[in-house]
Amino acid sequence: MSIRTALVDENRFDALVVASSLQNLGIEVVDIAHNFDLIDSPSLDLHPEVVIISIDSDPVRAVLLAENIRRKHQDVGIVLITRTPDLRLIGVSEKELPYGVQIILKTVVVDLHVLVDAIHRSIEDLITRSKVRWVTGTTFTSDNPFQSSLQKLTSVQLETLRLVAIGGSNAEIARIRTVTEKAVEHTITRILQALDITTNPRHNARVLLVREYYRFVNVAKQD
After folding, report:
1. CA distance 207 to 141
2. Is 50 part of any domain?
């Protein structure tokens, strides 16, 4: 019997491609939503067994959607799709996510069979209330296998890196973190050291950090 799924993705083209591919693999896509604001959307009235959410365009609303689904529909599996190997880079803590969530990188979704496996696993993990799992190939793990050098950074350092990447000045970052500008400068220095980034007069440290950030999240910087 085919698994009934709903797909939430603000990128309409990506959503149609994934939906069509899933249908060809025997997964029934009952609805496609393009707006995270539709937390009580008609999609859930169609009684999907799994909801697939592409989270990068608005991670905060995507997480709120996942939390609301789990609270109101405890028998629905949840699969999150992202471009970033560490959700902290887009301002999300894995601790905020409901139990049983599967996280899969978009680079892995190229193999749709991996997404199908994640759909099945999201249902299985509801029974055991397993914690969040990262999906890489056909491997499912509670540890994030993609972090690499990001594991060297603390949550404060990753948040600072994210704020630098979106254009925050030291003064703005200090205000957000309620610390001094000097503390922000020290944090940036430690980030550079942890990522083995060497600066010189020809290369601005902030530019190098922004480049490194977007290399990690695997998306082009939006204007």
Report:
1. 34
2. yes
Q: Do 108 and 136 belong to one domain? A: yes
Residues 96 and 204 placed together within one structural domain of the fold: no
d(CA 115, CA 102): 10
| 106/121 Cα distance (integer angstroms) | 17
Residues 6+ apart with CB under 8 A from 60: 91, 92
Position 92 scores a pLDDT of 86
Q: Can you give the residue range of the structural domain that contains 156?
A: 148-217
Claim to verify: residue 58 and residue 155 sit in the same structural domain: no
Mean pLDDT by 10 residues, the chain (223 residues): 87 88 90 74 73 90 89 91 85 87 82 87 89 70 55 84 89 92 92 82 78 70 40
SS3 string of the chain? CCCEEEEECCCHHHHHHHHHHHHHCCCEEEEEECCCCCCCCHHHHCCCCEEEEECCCCHHHHHHHHHHHHHHCCCCEEEEEECCCCHHHHCCCHHHCCCCCEEEECCCCCCHHHHHHHHHHHHHHHHHCCCCEEEECCEEECCCCCCHHHHHCCHHHHHHHHHHHCCCCHHHHHHHHCCCHHHHHHHHHHHHHHCCCCCECCECHHHHHHHHHHHHHCCCCCC
Q: What is the pLDDT of residue 136?
A: 67
- The two beta strands, 50-54 and 4-8, are parallel
Closest to 218 (Cα-Cα) out of 148, 153, 141: 148
Threshold 0.70, pTM exceeds: yes
